[in-house]
Amino acid sequence: MPPPADLLQGTLDMLVLKAVALEPQHGWAIAQRIQQTSENVLQIGQGSLYPALHRLEYKGWIRAQWGASENNRRARFYSLTAAGRKQLEAELANWDRLAGAINLVLARI
Amino acid sequence: MLREFFTRLRFFFTGKSRAAVDEELQFHIDREVEANLAAGLSPAEARRRALLAFGGRERAREQCREQRPAWSLEMFLRDLRYGFRGLLRNPGFTTVAVLTLALAIGANTTIFSLIDQALLRTLPVQDPGRLVVLSFSGDQAGHVHSDGGDSPGHEHEFSYPMIRDLESKNEVFSGVIASASHDVGVTWNNRAESVAAEMVTGNYFQTLGVRPAVGRVFVSSDETAPGANPVAVLNFDYWRSHLAEAPVVGKTLLVNGTPFTIVGVAAPGFHSMVWGRLPDIYVPITEQSVVQPDWSLLSNHQAYWLNAAARLRAGVTPAQAAAGLNPLFYSLRAAEFTSLRDQSAHERKAYLTDSHINLESGAQGFSPTRQDLRTPLTIIMAMVLLVIGMAVVNVASLLLVRAATRAREFSVRYALGATGAQVVRQLLAEGLILGLAGAVIGLAFAPEALRLLIHWTAAGSGDTPPFTPTLNGQVLVFSLGITLLASLLFSLAPATQFWNPHLVEALKQQSNTGLGSSLKFRRTCVALQIGFSLLLIVAAGAFVRTIQNLRHVNVGFATDHLLAFDLAPELAGYPAADVAPVEQRVLDAVAALPGVRSVGATNDPDLQDDGTGGSVVVSGYTPPPNEDFDVELPAVSTGYLQDLGIPLLAGRYFNAGDTATSQKVAVVNQLFAQHYFGSVTAALGHHVSRPSLPDTDAVIVGVVANAKHNSVRDPAKVTSYIPFAQSVRHSGLTYYVRTWQPPDTAANSIRAAVANIDAKLIVSNVSTLTAQIDDDLLNERIVALLAANFGGLAAVLAGIGLYGILAYSTAQRTREIGIRMALGARRGTVVGLIVREVLLLAGGAILATLPLAVLFTRAVRSQLFGVSVIDPRVYGAAILLLVAVAALAAMVPARRAATIDPSRALRTD
């Protein structure tokens, strides 16, 4: 397994926002989801996941609520707020622009 | 955006509980274990992998906490807490540092408050930024009544007709206002007293936007014709302190014996459009001849007596206003010029062509007082800044000494993973605690210090000081800013020492060689302290010498045992013709009092910065062309010159034979005789007269020695005395009573004697001449007192700072000294070694600062008297004092070093 790619600060925020965009998720599930959908390329360590969740919550982009998990334990579920949705859209647009630009450069050289 | 802000704000205060974070993290691990079990691992293995994948739980917890919005503040509070504990462990150091800062910040706050009030604050009127002060350049051909504040090209006195024309014909102002001040006698409830009156134009209050507190203020219809508007507005403070806030509207009071109806009281806090002028009562300008019965100024184009200001019309800039006003001013001056006696081209140029009007910002109001105060206050503020500089260096060196003993503490911190930034933040927090503690104490004492200073400046004179002992927001912000800046500076000193992760190595090397940046820094501290204190002590010496010189200056007569008082019969309603006779009766009555050796009176008080002068025509003297030479022209009682003890050089003094009807006579001083005739005796028998006044031709019957008149600072002037009985104009006199009785006793018997003549006569400003001279020297005295205090403070601070640094550096050299002594050095040699080093450093610092001190003294030489810019006594004393302080500060650690036991010293690490 190749070592997980270093995530740019801000990119992690975008991934987390995207992961909770559909339905409320708890921390472990968010990490699992990112890992699975990236086919194990992106592995989010707890050392960065929970600070990121807290940071986004403090910014008001996601909201946390206690709820019952799939194994019937009390867990904190994170969901996107209106401000968070706007932020996600902005970051996705920005990412598209950036990725497109990088692709252009790489294709020419 | 707003929502985000509120979310952050909420979390700023509440945050998240530690238990909630823990529960969340625990859930994550448990869920991982479960997933591992589901993948078919054994329970032990599932748990091991989950924990391994998770990593350090404490670290995760910490990282979550660091995301909190309030995190940096929490860290800072923690730093403060540590700093606080550390400072409490060192009470001696903390006390010295905090007191040093408190003194510096307290002094800064006190003096800056005075500066703020005198130089920075705007008038308490509506929209002061739209006010302009009017002045003009051009000849003032006639008489000028000035309160001062003029500079070349900026005459601040206008005639009343000029003000009326400017007000009615201009198109740039919404109002032109003018005022003049004079003392009047006010009788209220049958009690007479002398109060300050301001004569103002009818639109004065409305243009300034000052509302009445009670009743109404003046309106334009209160300024109609001379003598037609006997109404008065009271100043709020006067109404409260003298009239006990009695209902006054519609009541009558007497001004110089004439009844005036009180129409209202002006808003509290307002005094005058002239800062520092504190009138008790306002009367319309048209009542001028009631206020000054011996003058009739209202219709005179050549009487310059009114200060003027104006409010700009909306949308008009000062430059536009000046451009619009000058053609009007020129045409008015041109009309005036045609009626002047002197129609020469020279006068035309001086009066008209070179004349123009100036508009200057009037937000703070015109103020002669401010101009007198500006230089002394600036000097004192500069000294305060030097004191602050000293305090910063002082605390920095103390912190440095303290920090050196904390090397181990900081090494441990670095070893535990602290970054350089964290260590610096810790040091800044400690500095901030010291600074704020100093500021709190300093600010707590500042109002009291201010009150004492203001009280002290007003002591002696009956005048109300223009200052209030309260600190406003601006002053507090300034002090806080200075505190923060100072804290930053002195905490950075140790920070530079500890910004180094390889601290232990570095310190070890330093202690072995005795060299390095730390030593350089210590030397800089010592040099700076000596430099700052040299400046302050030289300043103290120069100003103290100045006041001593001024106190002991020979004015030409004996100033001791002279009791002075003012008495103006016109304030009691006497018509001009009756003034001189009643004044003679007062002189006779006072002369007859027991214990009074002699009495004299003059219309031109001595050594009060007052002058009454003009040009004269002298027979037998042909003036060079365009000679513009003014002569002092006091009108005195026949016994005045003998009373003061001004020696007679030729001819005779005035005597009882010189009456209103006899041949007019004059006595001139030596300067007069020499200027006009070249010798003392040649003056006798010549005639002196005023060029424009009839009946002033007098024959010179005597010559007296020169005596200083305006002030002890200024040299004697060319003077011609005349007997007041022969004067063309009769007004109030200042009386000088030579008596060996205590001043209070004499004052009481004088008051009784005057009351015996007429109970309405007001005896005012009773004080000894020496007290009056002191009063006149107020600025010099304040500067000298503060300078002496700052100088003393500088010496003490330098002593403390030097001692701290030397004690530390000597302790650091224990090993070196041990070796020297083991090799046979004697105690005296060791002491000499250390003291010599300090004295060399001090000498170097003094030499480097001396040119600065000379520059400083040069900059303030206008404020010095009898002290040269390189006065050897001032510099000698300052250098001696500093060398003594340095030697003393070095002696104690040096002696301690000399008692070192070599065998023990060599074993220290």
SSE order and pairing:
The complex is a heterodimer of chains A (109) and B (909).
Chain A: H1 11-19, E1 25-26, H2 27-37, H3 46-59, E2 62-68, E3 74-80, H4 82-108
Antiparallel strand pairs in A: 1-3, 2-3
Chain B: H1 2-14, H2 18-38, H3 43-54, H4 57-66, H5 71-89, H6 91-120, E1 131-137, E2 143-144, H7 160-169, E3 173-188, E4 191-200, H8 204-208, E5 212-215, E6 231-234, H9 236-242, E7 252-255, E8 258-266, E9 281-284, H10 288-291, E10 303-304, E11 307-312, H11 318-337, H12 345-353, E12 356-361, H13 368-404, H14 407-415, H15 420-458, H16 473-498, H17 503-513, H18 517-551, E13 562-567, H19 576-591, E14 596-602, E15 613-614, E16 617-618, E17 631-632, E18 635-636, H20 640-644, E19 648-651, E20 665-669, H21 670-677, E21 687-689, E22 698-704, E23 720-723, E24 733-739, H22 743-757, E25 763-768, H23 769-776, H24 778-812, H25 814-822, H26 827-859, H27 872-898, H28 902-907
Parallel strand pairs in B: 2-10, 4-9, 6-8, 18-23, 20-22
Antiparallel strand pairs in B: 1-11, 1-12, 3-4, 3-7, 3-11, 5-8, 6-9, 7-8, 13-24, 13-25, 14-24, 15-17, 16-21, 19-22, 20-23, 21-22
Helix pairs in contact in B: 2-3, 2-4, 5-15, 6-13, 6-15, 6-16, 7-11, 11-12, 13-16, 13-18, 13-24, 15-16, 18-24, 18-26, 18-27, 19-22, 24-27, 26-27
Structural features, described:
- The complex is a heterodimer of chains A (109) and B (909).
- Chain A has 109 residues and is an alpha+beta fold.
- Chain A has four helices and three strands.
- Chain A has a three-stranded antiparallel beta sheet with strand order 1-3-2.
- In chain A, strand 2 and strand 3 form a beta hairpin.
- Residues 1-6 of chain A have low confidence and may be disordered.
- Chain B has five domains: 2-69, no CATH class; 72-121 and 371-505, no CATH class; 128-363, no CATH class; 514-554 and 771-909, no CATH class; 569-761, no CATH class.
- Chain B is built from 28 helices and 25 strands.
- In chain B, the strands form five sheets. In chain B, strands 16, 18, 19, 20, 21, 22 and 23 form a seven-stranded mixed beta sheet that branches.
- The interface between A and B is medium-sized, with 23 and 31 residues.
